Amino acid sequence: MRTAAVIGTGLIGTSAALALSGRGVTVHLIDHDPERARTAAALGAGTDDPLEGPVDLAVVAVPPALTATALADAMRAGIARGYLDVASVKGGPRRELEALSLDLSSYIGTHPMSGKERSGPLAATADLFEGRPWVLTPTPVTDTEVLNLALELVALCRAVPVVMDADAHDRAVALVSHTPQLVSSMVAARLREADETAVRLCGQGIRDVTRIAASDPRMWVDILSANPGPVADVLSGIAADLDGTVAALRALASADPAKREDGVGAIEDVLRRGNAGRSRVPGKHGAAPAAYEIVAVLISDEPGELARIFADAGRAAVNIEDVRIEHATGQQAGLVQLMVEPAAAAVLSATLRERGWSIRH
To answer: What InterPro entries does this protein's entry cite (predicted)?
Structure first.
């Protein structure tokens, strides 16, 4: 691939353009808002000069509701040898294109499983896709050359290709992406009118659950509007669990010992099913999640403290598998939770104590 056109210079489009430009591909940036294209060009994502001829690959990175129209316009104009989109739903745009009676041999639907709470070209980074799954949904008529161009794009972005059926993809993202966004927003919405005293008690748990609730509502309305059925199906199952859990909690307040026992059983059941589901989420390098031990260290909110604690862990010859920071409310300090292999926890704790760190249990 020597040349590409990126249509839509938001977070995903600009990030892909940055990755391609950084690896020597000439990228032409196209957007209905010329200012966004100019911003992306200023970031080094490519040029906003008009196309002078067909490019190797056109990447359509517009909202799902506009994807089929943008693809059809580009294909009719013949701007590229191959066309793909990066919309977060795949079945709908493909069916819209089929209804337009276009030759779809030059098209493949794709979806990079990566993003941020922020949107727009200024949020873009060339490494946004590194190590992340990038779904490809070829059809029986997809030309081999176009599939190879898509695979080259994924490789240049250093992502991991995953081939799926379009409708199976939409059901999967409803479960692992779209529904979590709604549930996170619903939990965060409880905080809107909460008493200030309650909000000040927020810890790492509520921060974890509500992190993605900071996402752009307009963007998510577009996404959910393109995949409503599968998302509603997943939410229906969650609603059934919620109803059962509410009934179980009411039973726990009952004076009847038998009802309380039933309530305990129901609550334990949903928690255990949650344990089982969580255990299936891939861990480091895509393997099954490991049972790490946490070494919690008190850290002050000062420049260089994180670097110092990682350097001291290196002196102990201990590999940090994961890390989490829990900030203390109203204080210039917090807890760094260092996740390590169980056999390394004692060594790391001892070394950090010797280096003057305060270990918390």
So the answer is: 6-PGluconate_DH-like_C_sf, NAD(P)-bd_dom_sf, PDH_C, PDH_N, Preph/Arog_dehydrog, Prephen_DH
Exposed (0-12), middle (13-18) or buried (19+): which is 96, by Cβ within 10 Å?
Answer: middle
Give the strands of the sheet with 293-300, arranged side by side: 322-327, 333-340, 293-300, 358-360
Q: What is the pTM of this model?
A: 0.78
Containing 3, the helix (H) or strand (E) segment is: strand 3-7
CB atoms closer than 10 angstroms to residue 134: 23
Q: Is 293-360 assigned to CATH 3.40.50.150? A: no
Please give the CATH architecture assigned to the domain spanning 3-164: 3-Layer(aba) Sandwich (3.40)
Q: Note the pLDDT tens digit of each residue in 190-237.
A: 999 999 999 888 888 888 899 999 888 988 998 899 899 999 999 999
Q: With the C-alpha atoms ordered 222, 225, 229, 231, is the resulting torsion angle positive or negative? A: positive
What's the CA gap between 125 and 157, in Å, rounded? 11
Model confidence pLDDT, tens digit, residues 259-301: 999 999 999 999 999 999 988 887 665 555 567 889 988 888 8
Evaluate whether 63 touches 219 at the Cβ level (below 8 Å): yes
